[in-house]
Design brief:
- This protein is mostly helical and 146 residues long.
- It has one domain (6-139): VKOR domain (de novo design (two linked rop proteins), Up-down Bundle).
- It contains 5 helices and 2 strands, in the order H-H-E-E-H-H-H.
- The chain has helices at 6-32, 45-51, 62-78, 82-110, 115-138; strands spanning 56-57, 60-61.
- The protein has a two-stranded antiparallel ribbon with strand order 1-2.
- Helix 1 (6-32) runs antiparallel to helix 3 and helix 1 (6-32) packs antiparallel against helix 5 (115-138).
- The longest helix has 29 residues, at 82-110.
- The protein is elongated.
- It starts with 5 loop residues before the first helix and ends in an 8-residue tail after the last helix.
């Protein structure tokens, strides 16, 4: 199996960051306007998750952390070279861990599923896969002599 080109991996990571930013911005804007994110299909899971004490961390809505995370990974992905690869990988690893923690809370503590949270967790998982493939496949290649 061949590894996709770094260009394709960067484009995929950029696209995923933009999707993640869209999800986080939508939720953050809805909450900032005093609303509750609505689940597609009319489920009450999003409202239940939003009303839980876990929707905020240190007084900041988790969607804001999503905005910061996706924007940081986007900036690292746009940064060329090994440092950018390592930063994008590290930030996406942290983002994946945070997403897994929030998903755990939804399943086992809150006992409700928010479709926006699931969409963000899937996006972060795919982003982590792209960043990991990029760092594993292309780390150190910038320093090879022609």
């Amino acid at each position: 199996m061949t590894i996709p080109s770094e260009r394709k991996l960067r484009i995929a990571a950029i696209a995923l960051c933009l999707v993640g930013l869209g999800i986080a911005a939508s939720v953050a804007a809805t909450v900032a306007a005093g609303g509750i994110p609505q689940c597609v299909g009319g489920s009450t899971g999003c409202a239940t998750v939003e009303k839980s004490r876990y929707s905020e961390l240190l007084g900041v809505h988790v969607a804001v952390f999503g905005l910061i995370g996706y924007a940081s990974i986007l900036a690292a992905t746009l940064w060329r070279g090994d440092l950018g690869r390592i930063l994008a990988f590290t930030l996406s690893l942290f983002g994946l861990g945070f997403s897994l923690y929030l998903t755990y809370l939804e399943f086992w503590v809150i006992e409700a599923i928010c479709q926006w949270c699931v969409a963000s967790a899937i996006t972060m998982t795919l982003l982590f896969a792209a960043c990991t493939t990029r760092v594993v496949g292309y780390f150190g290649l910038d320093h090879r002599k022609p």
